[in-house]
Amino acid sequence: MKFLADENLEASVVEALRRVGHDVATVPAQAGIRDSDVLARSVGERRILLTNDKDFAELAFLQRTASVGIVLIRLPRCGSEAKATRVEEEVGARGDRLAGAMTVIEEEATRRRALPS
């Protein structure tokens, strides 16, 4: 699968997904890069966005900004390796169902909601 890792995503998550064969591009850490620009890049490159940032939900649902898919990672009590393992497991289990949806990965559950068309 093709992903775009937001600038706030831990390198361990990116590396774990790459190890199992996923194509993961990254957003360089730059001051002032707008979330809408990140989302536009993911659409332009047909990549599912991986992020820790809840603001993308507002862009996708309230502002109805186009998106290929968003994976919001909400694992505040996990260390970077545990987070990487959890994300890798969920991506493996959900596969193509990540496209066209906002998927929220939490410690005890994973939720999925279809994105507006």
Can you walk through the features of this model?
This protein has 117 residues and is an alpha/beta fold. The protein has a single domain (2-114), classed as Rossmann fold, CATH 3.40.50. Helix content is 36%, strand content 24%. Helix 3 (55-62) links the parallel strand 3 (48-51) and strand 4. Helix 1 crosses helix 4.
Question: How do the strands and helices of this protein lay out in sequence?
Answer:
Layout: E1 2-5, H1 11-19, E2 23-26, H2 35-44, E3 48-51, H3 55-62, E4 70-74, H4 80-94, E5 101-106, E6 110-114
Parallel strand pairs: 1-2, 1-3, 3-4, 4-5
Antiparallel strand pairs: 5-6
Helix pairs in contact: 1-4
| Strand order, largest beta sheet | 2-1-3-4-5-6
State the helical fraction.
25-40%
Number of domains: 1
Reported by name, the CATH topology is Rossmann fold
CATH architecture: 3-Layer(aba) Sandwich
Unreliable sequence segments: none
First-residue to last-residue Cα separation: 21 Å
- Characterize the main sheet: 6 strands, mixed
Number of strands: 6
Structural class: alpha/beta
Number of H- or I-type helical stretches = 4
The 3D shape can be described as globular
In CATH's first tier, which class applies? Alpha Beta
What is the ordering of alpha helices and beta strands? EHEHEHEHEE
**Could you tell me the strand content as a percent range?**
15-25%
Q: What radius of gyration results from the CA coordinates? A: 13 Å
